[in-house]
Design a protein that fits this description.
The chain has about 270 residues and is an alpha+beta fold. It is built from 12 helices and 11 strands. Helix content is about 40%, strand content about 20%. The protein has a 6-stranded antiparallel beta sheet. Strands 3, 4, 6, 7 and 9 form a 5-stranded antiparallel beta sheet that branches. Keywords: DNA-binding, Transcription, Transcription regulation.
Length: about 270
């Protein structure tokens, strides 16, 4: 069966698949609140992995690079609902409720899990819109988003430091960030935003740090990692080329031979 992806209303997306599916790299400029209705999501982010299990609610902070693998449940279904908490809505909510924060969230955790009776019930209340038994008017859609914000804050007041932090990403260490995230096949524009830079500033700083343009460095870095995995971990390219940001296996083989002068097989079976 074909995957089902539906935009129920402007900021609510429902997805349903029936077999394991590998997602592409996604850049999330806004927070989003999700509920794993069925199946399981394996999320790779910031050099870490998180498993989102069935009946789990997850709040994902904005400005994230995430790659997913979606696994259907034993019954054969994968279902996930995601509602975007965009900056415009959050800023209006903060203004109306006189919420001001002097500093952003200081914790290191990237994904927040808040399984809670109220949150669970909230997502169940969206079922009529998903099943098309009720139409989501713009007014109703806005109310449902505001309800999500209310429930989150009631469940954990400290989340205000996450939701209402409207500061742009601060300038972070470019070398450390790129070495932790080179495997994400995303745009230079996204990398620039994530490191707190304009595109021109990112390219300028990148050339200074790495003495190379971003795309060239990314390709070289991914090939070097591939060499290590093949030579010392004895892994097959088919098992990891997507994980390193390569879109096409035949192109990977060509690029590998061009850089190292040997095929992957020759490297794998040569003496250390």
């Amino acid at each position: 069966m074909e995957p089902i992806y539906e935009i129920i209303f402007d900021k609510l997306v429902y997805s349903c698949i029936f077999e394991m599916q590998r997602g592409t790299e996604e850049y999330y400029p806004d927070h989003f609140l999700g509920f794993q209705l069925a199946g399981e999501t394996q999320a790779f982010h910031d050099n870490d992995t998180t498993i989102i299990k069935e009946n789990t609610v997850v709040l994902v902070k904005r400005n994230q690079l995430i790659r997913t693998i979606k696994y259907p449940s034993k019954s054969g279904n994968y279902k996930f609902i995601a509602i975007t908490l965009d900056s415009k809505t959050l800023q209006r909510y903060a203004f109306e409720n006189k919420i001001k924060i002097k500093e952003g969230y200081q914790g290191k955790q990237k994904l927040f899990f808040e399984p809670n009776e109220f949150l669970h019930s909230y997502f169940i209340s969206l079922a009529p819109y998903i099943n098309k038994t009720k139409e989501a008017t713009p007014r109703l859609a806005e109310l449902k988003i505001r309800e999500a914000i209310e429930i989150l804050l009631d469940n954990n007041p400290d989340l205000k430091y996450v939701l209402f932090d409207f500061a742009k990403p601060h300038l972070i260490d470019l070398e450390e960030f790129m070495n932790n995230n080179f495997m994400f096949n995303t745009s230079v524009e996204s990398f620039a935003k994530l490191t707190g830079r304009s595109v021109s500033g990112f390219k300028r700083d990148f050339a200074r740090v790495f003495n190379s343009p971003p795309q060239q460095w990314l390709k070289e870095r991914r090939l070097e990692e591939a060499y290590y995995l093949i030579k010392y971990k004895r892994k097959k390219p088919a098992d990891f080329y997507l994980d390193l940001g390569f879109e096409n296996l035949s192109h990977f083989y060509y690029s590998f031979k061009q850089k190292f002068g040997e095929t992957t097989t020759e490297v794998q079976y040569s003496k250390p």
